[in-house]
Amino acid sequence: MHLRLFAFVISLLCEVIRRGSGVIQKQSAHRGTSVDCRSCLECSRDNGCVRCPERLFLFLQRDGMSHHGTCLHACPAGHYGQRGKDINRCMKCRSLDCEHCFSRDFCTKCKSGFQLYKGKCMTSCPKGTFAHQKDCLESCLFASLGEWSEWSTCVHNGVTCGFRWGMQTRTRNSRRPEEKTAWLCPSQNETQRCRMKKKCPTDDEEGHGSHLSLSLPLSSVSPMAANCCGLT
């Protein structure tokens, strides 16, 4: 009686071992042939990778109602790598305008059509900053300022005489320190008040009113200036 029971237990144990071996072989074959499972430490037939080697990141991609895992050396666009004690994961950037991010709320590169400023993606650069490629810079890089130009002619309402005071302007442009270097700074302008010749010279003195702005039509000259200069 005891011998029969012992033989039955041995037979049952052998069957369990045989079936278990078959399952392991099937899993190993699946792991060896599946592209998604080649870099995994653990893999599921339905969900792909569930555990990755130490240096790789587990990227879970939604597939219908489930997720499919892949082990990657670098996380895809719109995600960042978060290292953990047991597993490294690819986490999604919070902003949809962010192409790459350092953490959930700090972008390092924006999608096309957006400018990067202090970790945020913006449709335009804030006031006081300069757009350079995909970044907003707070200072003019690589752009030394040239010398100021001469002051422009003192004018008032487009004429150079007939008033006591006018305005004049000078400009200072940025210049490239070397070839192929970004030119980021806009030109600078200064305007100051200036004294004018209150009395316009006659044609005999200056020849045909040369102090008048030639680019301005007569209709835009003030009646006072036109009268003093003999244009009416």
Describe the structure.
18% of the residues lie in helices and 31% in strands. The C terminus is likely disordered. The N and C termini lie far apart (140 Å). The protein contains 3 helices and 16 strands. The protein is α+β, with helices and mostly antiparallel strands. The chain has 2 domains: 101 residues, Ribbon (Hormone Receptor, Insulin-like Growth Factor Receptor 1, Chain A domain 2); 85 residues, no CATH class. A two-stranded antiparallel sheet has the order 1-2. The protein has a two-stranded antiparallel ribbon with strand order 3-4.
Brief sketch in words of this structure:
The protein is α+β, with helices and mostly antiparallel strands. Helix content is 18%, strand content 31%. It is rod-shaped.
**Arithmetic mean pLDDT:** 75
Q: What is the 3D shape?
A: rod-shaped
How many domains in all? Answer: 2
Tally of individual helices: 3
- CATH domain topology of the largest domain: Hormone Receptor, Insulin-like Growth Factor Receptor 1, Chain A domain 2
Q: What is the rounded Rg?
A: 39 Å
**Spans with pLDDT under 50 lasting ≥5 residues?**
22-33, 177-182, 208-232
Strand % is: 25-35%
The percent of residues in helical segments reads 10-25%
Number of strands: 16
- The string of secondary-structure elements, in order, is HEEEEEEEEEEEEEEEEHH
Structural class: alpha+beta
| Biggest sheet: strand arrangement | 1-2
CATH superfamily of the largest domain: Hormone Receptor, Insulin-like Growth Factor Receptor 1, Chain A, domain 2
Organism: Solea senegalensis
Domain R-spondin Fu-CRD: 37-134
Subcellular location: Secreted
GO cellular component, one term: extracellular region
